[in-house]
Input
Amino acid sequence: MDGLEITDVSSCDLSGRQDHRVPGEPMLRVRGLTRIYGRECPDCVPRTGPEAGSNICPGCGSVVACAGVSFDLYAGEILGVVGESGSGKSTLVQCLYFDSAVTAGEAYLRNYREGAVNILGSSAQEQRHIRHHLMGMVYQKPHQGLRLDCTAGGNIAEKLLAAEFFHVGRIRERASELLLRTEVPLERMDHLPRHFSGGMQQRVQIAKALANSPPLVFLDEVTTGLDVSVQARVLDLIRHLHRELGLAMVVVSHDLGVIRLLTDCTLVMKTGRVVEAGLTDQILGDPQHPYTQLLVSSLL
Amino acid sequence: MPDKQAVRPGYNFAFLDEQTKKEIRRRILKAVAVPGYQVPFASRELPIAQGWGTGGLQLTLALVGPGDVVKVIDQGSDDVVNAVNIRRLLLQTTGVKTTEDTGAATLIQTRHRIPEERLREEQALVFQVPYPEPLRRVEPSEVKTREMHAEADYSRLWVFLYEDIVRWREITIGAQYPVLVNGRYVMDPSPIPRWDIPKLHMAANLNLFGAGREKRIYAVPPYTRVEPLAFEDHQFRVESFDGKHCAVCGSTASFLDELIDDHTGARRHTCSDVAYCAKRHQLLSENGPGAGRQTGNETGGGA
Ligand SMILES: Nc1ncnc2c1ncn2[C@@H]1O[C@H](COP(=O)(O)OP(=O)(O)OP(=O)(O)O)[C@@H](O)[C@H]1O
Ligand SMILES: [Mg+2]
Ligand SMILES: [Zn+2]
Ligand SMILES: [Zn+2]
Output
């Protein structure tokens, strides 16, 4: 870790904000997260990024999907990640959810061993434990997060069973509670999500992600591909759940409207780098980076 | 001591060459060291068709010594053609003594059953296994199932059991009921009935499993925990033979096969473990009816 990246850390300043947030240690600290697809060379990071205008290394042809991403996320807060297609948003959350290995970087979770271990370097078994007890993920495409050939209840059960919750009656109680909360009719519990509408599939995915009451949830483009009216309902649901459960969330979207509606702070990404970070209100009101200015002006 | 007359000339003792036997024994040691873990091995060709117990047979051949007394059973019977063939092969390549008496055997090869008589520390039981992978029900890819075992990631198998209960109100798996070995690996106990599963738990004897076609060896060493997967509110249950008893020996505490009389259509039950049944029958006729008294399910308690 060099000093330069530390100073680059984006974090929301909590001073003067008057809500439920727990001050002190961030819930998630990420430093220098880098993911390169392909064999690496020393040029990979220096010769890619917004200035180079590409995430493909001219030296070796590898894709630098994201590099040097650092941020702090506080308990109960929502961080937005916005940027054009291919800017590395999904890669970032997939690395943090251990779906994809990192090339470099560290992450610390306050709820795991007092935030003293780099979870990106933990063993596969530890990572599995973390993700089943402390994290939830909602993927862009329902089939990434759901087993469409298992019942809706079975999908929720999987997350509970992974956390060693071996009581069918209580699993079904918890699943009912979650489906109720995510507005999925209870009579669909034992049906296959394969036959559900896109909006309902996303709601089941959200129910699954929340099954173990994780303190941290990642949502990757949850509303993309849904009808506008359905989008609004799902966004409402997320806001509602956040208020009720006080979760910390990372919300990925290429849609600044979603970011504005949901998030406290925002990272703006371009070609695998964070080009601007800060409070969402400030970023939207007074964008500094030309790329952000472009995004914001297109929103108006 | 081996019966030299029975041995066909031209074979190495126990058919396999010494190098091969050593290699298999090394794999067995590894399997014993990591209970329930599937150890790959280089399965050999044997003069017996694959799918007819070649996995188990290779373990038996690698283990058998001149002083052993061998028993071979298939679905509880020593007399069916498979058991007879394997026993003959063993006899012709080793000359060792064979027996049908579970208590007298030192090495037992079996398919689909565990003898009713409780096995002792000095005995080893070798299972023939058709499909060693308990996760195959939920995951077709071998690479993935290995990863799942490595990470002790069994939630998908649990979901399978959960959905079984939702659909049928109970777990419908009869044979091949998945078990957790030593609190770590989920294992396929081979197609034994549920009835036999409790016998594996903390058994005094060594249990070895061989899959020839899939080239895997695994083991449950003596005094190892073997727990069938079950939910707190849906406990594991063995088959019930409530109100039924063996028509031959009167047993009410053994796994029973149902027989239907061709002429009368009448149903009757007899012990699936034929040697156990014969032993009890003999005991009864020698000592009178009181000799065969049983106290509930004795899970292998001897006659
Ligand atoms: N498995 C992979 N192998 C090679 N390159 C990949 C792989 N996954 C992603 N990439 C590349 O990494 C870059 C970042 O992809 P990522 O999916 O993170 O972008 P994104 O910001 O989520 O885009 P979108 O808005 O389209 O979802 C892209 O150039 C993509 O092509
Ligand atoms: Mg994406
Ligand atoms: Zn390069
Ligand atoms: Zn009988």
